[in-house]
Amino acid sequence: MAASVRMDLGDIQGDILRAYGNDYDCTTYAFMKIECPPEQARAWFTGVVDHVTTAAPWPPGEKPLTTLNVSVTARGLRALGVSEEVVGSFSREFRDGMSSRSALLGDVGPSDPKSWEPGLGSGDAHILLTINAQRTSDHERALGKMKAAMDAAGGLRIVYQADTELLPGSREHFGYADGFAQPAIEGTSDDKARGGGVPLKDGEWRALAPGEFILGYPDEDTRVDPKKRLPNAPAAPLGRSGTYMVWRKLYQDVALWRRVMRDAAKLYEGGDEHTLSAKVVGRWTNGAPLVKYPDKAPASFDPQTPGGNDFRYDKDKDGMRCPLGAHIRRSNPRDALGFEGHLSFRHRMIRRGMPYGKVLPEGVTADDGEDRGLVFVSFQASISRQFEGVQVQWLNAGNIFGLGHDKDFLLGDPHGTGKMTIPGKPPFFLSPQEVFVRTRGGEYLFVPGMTALAALADGTAG
Amino acid sequence: MRRTRSSTVASPNVSGQAYAFMAMTPVRPGEEKPLADYLRGLRDRGPSPLAKLPRTHIGRFVIVPDFHHDPTWKQRREEHLDLNYLIFTSNFDGDLDSYLDELCERLAPEAKEIWGRCVGCPESAKGAALKRYLEHNQIKTGMFFAAYGQATVGAVKSSLRQRDKLIEFAIRAQAMEPDALQKAFLSEFDAVR
């Protein structure tokens, strides 16, 4: 096995290896279109790059009030003057873009790209600026500076902007604690290996190779055989310290979710709506995993405390505690697929989602017309293997889990069996499945490393 | 496990009653892209042409442009293909002879666009001439395993319909009292008895 890898944190952009959501309450995602010649765009880009936040740790007490990060679409690379040859060295799914993969991803019906919000999935999004801020006032100041720089440069237009804000208790809109279960990465978060890494046969865990998430570093292939090539990456210097980013705006129909759970629970044992909902998710609302706490959530449970995410499914093969089709069991099956985790550990993602929109007050089951949901963000070395693998094979299909045409009850569309089986004596069939989550838009992006950003800015990226 | 010698060796192309056919044909120079475009466009032009052969479990067209060379392999020299190759595989019910008859008849319009772009394909690209061409280019299967080799396509589809019916019933019936459940089940699945 290769020795532990030292990451060049100063060359990697921030908010990838470490979640800013834990430090910053507001995040704005601004998608821009370049409508000027590449030279003019690069002059503006140079000014942006100077302010990009890296992954280098902040000295104690010097946490910036705001952070800035940059990513580009394939069209954005071209608009910055990158040659077709270099663009061609990026992965096919990135070049094709998310909207062209809609049938594969299950973005159909109300999630069809034809219904996406203007500016997303249309080819207009070239550059994404992500701005994090500790307070609203800092946030507004940073946005103002960004817009002033754009106006001064000319030839740039914001085609889509999403403003997001942490909800109380780090919950998402359906009410569940979210975002704390992340992959453990060698050399970065080895302390999170238990529950976040790869489950080993002897009961131990190990962190994942960094190349699963950051290009230019050994991945799970090269980890065991250092003679093997590093993972596929774009042509130098773009291929080092970068990562692919998936950005999706997911609308959540909270009122519909509550009504379906309320009505279905009338037939469920004890009529308990909260237990039924937890069975769909695989966790209680405070994040406590059902596989460890099948009957009741411990009131004091905090998913951030050490060991909070440390569990396996080996003692729950029939899903009596956590259903085989529960959302968290599908999206990260850990050891549930057998073969010592070999079928699952190449499909992990770093997730950096943020909720948007106002909370629907507790107990309300009528839709108030507000737009609310989650901006889903993931970082991975391969969009097709990691994000699309999970989305297509695990969430939108049931075969690998022995669940036939069942799809993820929470995120999947209802055109499979339209139900979820909750194992029990007797089992419970949760139905009807509705469209609780709709894709409102999305993009596949690339987050260059700092050296690569400088090369893009001065036109030497090839 | 102790091996026993059998006096009759089963065809390695057969598993249960299912047959695995593979033909590998070189693509004419200059026809690589038109062929790839045609095959890629099949999904946009409606149902798969293989649907015209209802005995087919799964069929696949693959174009092999060259051998992959991995510098980390202990391989003395790189090897390359002179031409692209089209691989056609199909797992189907019954015997090869009658299947190829059906294919060469029913898929004649598509065959012209597919094998018609390959080296040595007869100009008509249909009927007995196409059949001989495909037989000539058949690659014998080394080992064929069909998960349910005794089940025909018809039997598989019928089982899936039965399964869907059972799921629908189970959802509907879960609130019923035992007597009503028994009555409803017998009424719904009486033909099964």
Descriptive overview:
The complex is a heterodimer of chains A (462) and B (193). With 462 residues, chain A is an alpha+beta fold. Chain A has two domains: 9-169 and 231-243 and 443-458, no CATH class; 190-207 and 251-348 and 359-438, no CATH class. In chain A, 23% of the residues lie in helices and 17% in strands. In chain A, strands 7, 8, 9, 10 and 13 form a five-stranded antiparallel beta sheet that branches. A four-stranded antiparallel beta sheet of chain A has the order 2-3-1-4. A two-stranded antiparallel sheet of chain A has the order 5-6. Chain A is globular and about 65 Å long. Chain B folds into two domains: 14-136, 2-Layer Sandwich (Alpha-Beta Plaits); 153-192. In chain B, helix 2 crosses helix 4 (127-136). The longest helix of chain B has 21 residues, at 153-173. The model of chain B is unreliable at 1-8 (pLDDT under 50). Classes of the chains: A alpha+beta (462), B alpha+beta (193). The interface between A and B is small, with 11 and 10 residues.
